[in-house]
User: Which sequence fits this backbone?
């Protein structure tokens, strides 16, 4: 049976690894935070105390880490995965990182005889928990096909965007749009509230009108409008402002690569950056709604 080593059991990775276990796949897990490893052990995964222990006999390595520097360090540091793997493996990185970093990682792994695909996700913590994530994959078709069983256990829509790095480009385009939509939706809702409207009524109206979008449908930023979303839970959990700021930084460098014109992306980046700098970095990104409130 295929052995999977899973690294990074945070807001997203914990649920993703649980879904692999539910699909009866053979999963060994590791995170720097011991309590997260225990959480997964309770769910039926094999816990490990070190990188070396986690990759023993691994055929597939999956990582779900904050940023590119974490992935490079986990893979290539002296105590990193490549220095402990005895056989050859398929690496699947689901983190959102620079496309150039994914390409460089792919080349380095190839030089060690391993294979690599970038497979960033969309769908948020709810999608991770429900196993309905969208995977946006860059890599060889044969590796994409080999990863399918794993990805299917964690997601619903699985796209092959192109060569290694292409998954990250598509993901970053999507997240720049998401930031613009979240800021715009917050702005419109707050303007309605400022003019005496009930945000729930406003949301219902816009949901059936031309302003309809993903944030209104599934992730309303105004507290109390929708149950089970971060805005109704003091903006805890979900997708951190810090991570959205990281993605908007990636969007700006992606745009710079080919001189793409991204004025709304730049504005969204400034809005989220000011919001993060004001001490909100660890809140869910929908908390940008608060940036539009009167003092
Ligand atoms: P998170 O900060 O909640 O989790 C990251 C986990 O990685 C932490 O548990 C941390 O301890 C662990 N980690 C860091 N370095 C490690 C190492 N060397 N070895 C093992 N574990 C290590 O982040 P998250 O929200 O789960 O996001 C993970 C990635 O997914 C990010 O790249 C993010 O941009 C992307 N993403 C997040 C969401 C979301 O809604 N949260 C949605 C789509 C994509």
Assistant:
């Amino acid at each position: 049976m295929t052995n999977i080593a899973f690294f990074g059991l945070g807001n997203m990775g914990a649920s993703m690894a649980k879904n692999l276990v539910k699909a009866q796949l053979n999963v060994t897990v590791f995170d720097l935070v011991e309590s997260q490893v225990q959480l997964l052990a309770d769910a039926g995964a094999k816990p490990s105390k070190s990188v070396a222990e986690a990759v023993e006999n691994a055929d597939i390595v999956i990582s779900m880490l904050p940023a590119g520097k974490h992935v490079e360090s986990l893979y290539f540091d002296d105590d990193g995965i490549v220095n402990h793997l005895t056989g050859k493996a398929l690496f699947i990185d689901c983190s959102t990182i620079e496309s150039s970093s994914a390409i460089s990682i792919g080349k380095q792994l190839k030089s060690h005889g391993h294979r690599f695909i970038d497979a960033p996700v969309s769908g948020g913590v709810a999608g991770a928990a429900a196993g309905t994530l969208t995977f946006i994959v860059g890599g060889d078709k044969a590796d994409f096909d080999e990863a399918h069983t794993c990805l299917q256990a964690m997601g619903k829509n699985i796209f092959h965007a192109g060569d290694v790095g292409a998954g990250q480009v598509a993901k970053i385009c999507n997240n720049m749009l998401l930031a613009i939509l979240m800021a715009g939706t917050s702005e419109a809702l707050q303007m309605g509230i400022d003019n005496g409207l009930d945000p729930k009524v406003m949301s219902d109206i816009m949901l059936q009108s031309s302003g309809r979008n993903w944030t209104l449908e599934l992730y309303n930023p105004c507290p109390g409008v929708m149950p089970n979303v971060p805005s109704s839970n003091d903006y805890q959990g979900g997708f951190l402002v810090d991570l959205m700021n990281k993605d908007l930084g990636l969007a700006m460098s992606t745009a710079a690569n080919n001189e793409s014109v991204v004025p709304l992306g730049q504005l969204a980046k400034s809005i989220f950056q000011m919001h993060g700098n004001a001490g909100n970095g660890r809140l869910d990104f929908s908390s940008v709604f608060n940036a539009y409130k009167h003092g």
